[in-house]
């Protein structure tokens, strides 16, 4: 399995109820102007602190700026995940004996290759979606994050990221050198993907009972095994016999961290899509009203439909609709789960949206903790209002479509109570 930072530059317009495809450079046009717009995210703020001298990044002779960067961004080392397929920028550095490490928190992702030329960083920007940077791994008095725009827009575009600058997680069969054997197929992975199809090309540490996955699997020949025999890759708790773990900040590639990543990537992509769709729809509406001599603010049916369509998809992801069920309990090895649960707000009863279930599903209270994120708060007011409306309808039980039947009555009450007590800026009398 691989983590790819993909940029999809396609966009759509609904005009007179008809789907119209825009040019591939749509996100470079108003109102998004992806490459020209000034980022305002964790990396841009960190760069400002470095420029002012408020903060310095220390350089480590073994791992370069990685330890200092993780510390500055408050990215937990326990989040470490290791990918051994040659599926990223520094592919020559990646193999089963020298995997690429990925670390993350709620709004930033860091990729590290041992002896690599750069660190690869992706920040979740409230207005631009995924913004891509590199940081040279050579010691300098003034470290500088280099934003990657044109090269990413050319090489990293995919409808799998909801048609916006975003994140993509994949599972691929990998040979002994780390080359993905694409002729054997691959799987785009998110929280809806059965465990049996996840984590090809990744190391995975953790306990999961009799459930199977593709992690830790190296294919020795070019033929896909049927059935796939990955007995040696299951319930692995240590990796020291596969590569030199001392070369990395942690000795694990935690199964719970992988599962959280797969949920988070989808929600980040759909937050970006909801943002872009709303802004593009309102921009189109203003231009059309002006051209037709209609009053400003005249609401088009197409605008409403675009907001509702993107908002419904976001609500689905926030509430983990169609989540692949767990057949047996999951347990990580790195301490990630314990560290993750300590973050974020808790209600007066000590409940939190970051609490895990890990017996039949990922979270105890199936509503994404990313409702606290800058990306959520940065949604245009029209979209934010619609999302709160839909969440309220679901949690009150007004929505009888059956789409949210995975939420019990108690789940809905608990989620509503936790959100009411921990989230600022709620609509009056919500839910």
Give a structural overview.
The protein has 431 residues and is of the alpha+beta class. The chain has 2 domains: 255 residues, no CATH class; 164 residues, no CATH class. The protein has 9 helices and 12 strands. The strands form 3 sheets. A 7-stranded antiparallel sheet has the order 9-8-7-6-5-4-12, with helices on both faces. The protein has a 3-stranded antiparallel sheet with strand order 1-10-11. The chain has a two-stranded antiparallel ribbon with strand order 2-3. Strand 7 and strand 8 form a beta hairpin. Helix 4 runs antiparallel to helix 5, helix 5 crosses helix 8 and helix 8 runs antiparallel to helix 9. The radius of gyration is 22 Å and the shape is globular. The relative contact order is 0.13. The N terminus is likely disordered.
Quickly give the structural class. Answer: alpha+beta
Mean pLDDT: 91
Determine the number of helices (DSSP H or I, runs of at least 4 residues): 9
Strand content: 5-15%
End-to-end distance, in Å? 39 Å
Largest sheet: 7 strands, antiparallel
